[in-house]
Amino acid sequence: xxxxxxxxxxxxxxxxxxxxxxxxxxxxxxxxxxxxxxxxxxxxxxxxxxxxxxxxxxxxxxxxxxxxxxxxxxxxxxxxxxxxxxxxxxxxxxxxxxxxxxxxxxxxxxxxxxxxxxxxxxxxxxxxxxxxxxxxxxxxxxxxxxxxxxxxxxxxxxxxxxxxxxxxxxxxxxxx
Length: 176
Fold this sequence. Notes:
Blueprint: H1 8-33, H2 36-68, E1 84-87, E2 91-95, E3 116-124, E4 127-136, E5 143-150, H3 155-166, E6 170-171
Antiparallel strand pairs: 1-2, 2-6, 3-4, 4-5
């Protein structure tokens, strides 16, 4: 969603200027540390590998933008799930019958099972896998509710069930 499409050329020019400035700054800093012939190698490596982390940086900018202007995020259009309420320290969620809270043990992970609604999928080791991820940004902390389905009998029903559960997600912000 663009708030002001007429500003897109200006935003593109500012972005291009920032990219050129970063490349020039990288070249100047490397040249100051290394002879020009040797500096070329890390310069090329840094430019080519920057594409690997660019997606993560873009999502960080997206989080910051939503924290500043939450009205950019559409409301989640799903009927809230009914079932068993799961209470955690900083959030509650309702899980349907047959679901249970399972964690991987990763530090900071509250549960596996608002805001931005992303869907993606593919084939992993010959099996169809789909994900639906909901991301919320209370204050400056990004939280994600990720649903992972392996070979679902009905993909659309599984994704709809994930949305219905996500509609019950309530985040409690810690006091300042």
